[in-house]
Amino acid sequence: MRKSPSLAALALAAASLACQPTTTNQTNPPPDPAGTTAGGPTLGNPPADSGGTPTDPNTGPNGATSTTTTPGPGPVVAGSTNDSRFLGPEISHSKGTAGGVVVLWPRIIPGTIAEENAALAAQVQAKVKALAEKALPGRPIDVRPKPERVCPKAGCDAVSINVLFTKNSTACVTIALINGPGTSNTKLIPWGGGVELKSDTIQFRDMPENFVKIKDYVPCDQLLTNMAEQDQFIEAALRAAASSSAPPATPPPAGTTPPATPGPGPGGPSTVTTKPAGGKK
Question: Which of 100, 112, 132, 244 is most solvent-facing, going by the fewest CB within 10 Å?
Fold first, then answer.
């Protein structure tokens, strides 16, 4: 029996349809209007409409990277108040005010007796503060707490004064330590008891105890009274340190003439050079 030509044609058409691919001609996924593909984040942001370059995918709106945490305080200056890396407890956390005085905590030697003599050291420091106020009235005084007994490595901005203190049983010795601003040399002045100095001027932050030989102690209960006998020398050294660091006087503007000094009144002498000669009135 012969097959119908129409049936044969239908069978051929069905076979050709079965062999055609089911995919479309599109090879890339359609653009995601939300800026993501398959639900994941994009790798970077698209260029701006103005033709700008793509931004760093790790950069936030303020320029901070995705790994950035809360910004820090900025660069740490050695010797500054926020310099917790380099400042030990014995280093002054204040440089004082230019033109003022930093009164440091007494330097107690040896360190093993520091704590047991803290009360006496506080009395000595209070005396030093009073002397600084007398020697340099009106200047800002910065009294440092225990155990801040030395200026930072770069020095203080103000004049600094400290006391080297040591004790033998119930007898004490004190030596004043005075520095100008910065890393100027340290001036040593005997203040209580009797000592011999190998040098009265040493380099900044040298250990002063290495330059002192004790000759005589004073009873600790009489220390402040004994120190008062030398106050005038400490005051003079403190004023000298402050004056040497004072800024130079500002010269008058160019083209100006300083005001003339008024002359003496009628009949008065022009200049007194010596004492008047003795004679009868």
Answer: 112
Predicted model pTM = 0.60
- Residue partners of 221: CB distance under 8 A and separation at least 6: 170
Residue 66 Cα distances to 36, 61, 72, 75, 202, angstroms: 19, 10, 16, 22, 53
Question: What is the rounded CA–CA span in Å between residue 140 and residue 156?
Answer: 14
What would the pLDDT profile of 127-186 be if each residue is shown by its tens digit?
Answer: 999 999 999 999 999 999 999 999 999 999 999 999 999 999 999 999 999 999 999 999
Q: What are phi and psi of 125, to 5 degrees?
A: -65, -40
**Cα(31)–Cα(251) distance, integer angstroms:** 76
Q: Which residue has the tokens 């793509």?
A: 54
pLDDT in tens, 94-139: 999 999 999 999 999 999 999 999 999 999 999 999 999 999 999 9
Give CA–CA dist 68/52, Å, rounded.
24
Place of tokens 């800002």: 140
For residue 181, CA distances in Å to 62, 145, 157 come to: 42, 20, 5
